[in-house]
Every structure is written in C-alpha cells, then in structure tokens.
Amino acid sequence: MQSVLMDVDTGIDDALALGYLLSRPDVRVHAITCTAGNVGARQVALNNLALLELCGTPGIEVAIGAEVPLEIPLVTTEETHGPQGIGYAELPPPAQQVSDRHAVDVWVDEVRKHPGEITGLITGPLTNFALALRREPDLPYLLKGLVIMGGCFYYQGNTTPTAEWNVSVDPHAAKEVFAAYRGLPEDKLPVVCALETTELIEMRPEHLQRLAEAAGAGPEPVLPDQPEGLRSKSGNPLVACLSDALRFYMEFHRLYDQGFVAHVHDAFAACVAVGRTDVATALATVDVETGSPLLMGTTVADYRGLWGLPPNARIVTSNNPKQCFDELIESVGALARRLP
Q1: 251, 228 Cβ separation under 8 angstroms
Q2: Of 48, 17, 86, the residue nearest 273 (C-alpha)
Q3: pLDDT tens, position by position, 291-308
Q4: How far is CA 8 from each of CA 32, 50, 165, 229, 232, rounded to the nearest angstrom?
Q5: What is the pTM of this model?
Q6: Which of 148, 207, 280, 340 is paired with 315 by a 20 to 30 Å CA distance?
Q7: From the CB of residue 248, how many other CB atoms can be counted at a distance below 10 Å?
Q8: Are strands 262-263 and 279-288 parallel, antiparallel or unpaired?
Q9: Per-residue CA distances from 145 to 36, 119, 293, 312, 319 (Å)
Q10: Is the dihedral angle over the CA atoms 196, 51, 47, 204 positive or is it negative?
Q11: Among 214, 125, 114, which Cα is nearest to 171's?
Q12: CA dist 336 → 203, 221, 237, 271, 302 (Å)
C-alpha cells in the first residue's frame, strides 16, 4: 500500500487528482493539506472535504495551512477554476470538519511518525512545504519521495511569459524548497512535473465520454458547439461533478486560444507520484527568480552544471499522455461505477 500526503489548492485538476488517488485500491491518501492558490485556503479545504464525501471516503484529515504567500500578496484565479474552484460543479456542504491541526503540523508530525513511508504530492503553491522545511529540515530524508507540479523550463509560462502558476503565486517558497534539496542523494530529489510535459496531458471531450462509459453511466456530451455553462445530466454523481468542473476548464482554455481542452496538470502528477505512468527525468539544479519584477516566478534549470552547484531536482522530460489517460479513465471510472 502506497501512502500519499497531498498538498493542494483545489482547483479543477487537483480535484481530478484527488479522485484518481482515491480510486486506486493500492493507494492510501494519508492526509490532505490546503494552501491558498486557485482559491482561498478555506475554500480549498471545503472542496476537498466535499470531494471526499462524494467519493465515499470521508474521514481523511483535511488541514488548512498558509492562507497567504510568504512575502507577496495572494492572487487567486477564479476566472480559471470558477468561483469555488471546481468550475460549474456544485457540491453540498461537507459534514466533516476541517482538522484542528495546521498543515505544517500535519506534514512534520506525520512524516516523523512514518519515516520513509510517505510520498509527498504538491499540486499547489509550495508555501506549506517551505514552512514545514523551516520546522523540520530533515523532511527530504524522512519522506519516501516528493512530486511537485510546478514550474516551466525554457517554455512559455501560463501566468507570465516565463512563469507557471503555482510557482508565481509564491516564488519565495519555491526558491526555499529547491534550495533545501540542493546536494541531496539523487533518489531523494523531487520529481518536478512542469508545464512542458503537463500541458501534453490534454483532456478532451472524448475522454469525458470514455469516463462516463467506464462508470457505466449514460452519454456525457461536453462539446465545443454547445452553449457555455451547460450542466451535466448524468445520474452518476462523480461523473456529473467532473463533467461540470472540466467543462468550465475547457471553456477557459478555448477563451485563450488553446482549444476546447483541459490541461489536467495535477492528475498527471498524481499518476507520477504512485508510479502509474511512464516518464523520463533529467537531473538539474533549479532556482527561482524573486528579485526581478519582469521575471518574478521564473524557474531556471541548469542541466549542464554551469552554476557549479549540485542538482536539486529530477525534471520530467517526457511522458506518455495516452497511457496516462487510460490509467485515469479506467481507475476513476471504476470508482464512479462503485458509488451508490
């Protein structure tokens, strides 16, 4: 059984990532920590609690962490993920309450209790993890591994021309995290899923239709010629939720001339974290720009050792989108089929 501690800013693609991990019989979601990013941290927590109940897995601890970045004002992105962070989807208020523990306490205490057992998966800004490293600098050794969705390397950003969203929200936290991993053994370095590979994971209308079929639900047409804002009529609650969330995301991508698709960055990172999709990686020394207003949040990778500094990351350099979608659709569809 694999144990994963998620740190998220849920978020449409975070929601799919969570649903995927909950669908895997060989994966235990150890806890979920929440940071501000796509929406505020408290809304993130409510989204996670509601999704846990929707997926039939209440009882997993959900803890709120940093509600603002380390040094700069918070910017959220409701225009990308919807007013509540999950697109057009609407979920009832959860029965479970948010944990009394702070996210940093969850990271530090749980990894200390289970050394070498927990894989960290961070699909939002790195604020909580940076604060946890300040508290426990040995976290990289205590974790089994770490997967980060963030950054872009010599590739167009999705927030500024050179910066990816998660890093741009809190570039100072990202800089601290990468600095903490400099010079560690290769097997302890974080696996970084950056835009140049996550943007290859394009969810299309046919993927949603396949998901509905895998769930044993009826047709699920989410099509570019339909009016904006349509809601799913599926009788399967998980299919309906994901369909309504992803329609919003597809409409957003189309608005910015990227096609009627949804880049499900975080779902890919979740597959990587549990070893269910093929990737190649390259060692690099990563740093983050925090001083230049023009380049704030830019992630730079030195693959050739020009800085004379040891590596601190394993950057994903290639992946297999078809395999990833086959995995996501089969597994999430099986979960949806099991739900009452």
Answers
A1: yes
A2: 17
A3: 999 999 999 999 999 999
A4: 7, 14, 13, 26, 25
A5: 0.97
A6: 207
A7: 21
A8: unpaired
A9: 23, 5, 33, 13, 19
A10: positive
A11: 125
A12: 18, 17, 8, 18, 43
Task: Give the separation between CA 26 and CA 3, rounded to whole angstroms.
Answer: 9
Element (H, E) at 5: strand 2-8
Dist. CA 27–CA 229, nearest whole Å:
34
Average pLDDT over residues 167-194: 98
Residues 8-44 pLDDT 10s = 999 999 999 999 999 999 999 999 999 999 999 999 9
Query: How many angstroms separate the CA atoms of 42 and 34, rounded?
Result: 8
Distance CA 288, CA 178 (A): 8
Distances (CA, A) of 35 to 85, 194, 227: 13, 19, 33
How many Cβ atoms sit within 10 Å of the Cβ of residue 309? 14
Which pair of tokens denotes residue 143? 């974790």
Residue type, 172: H
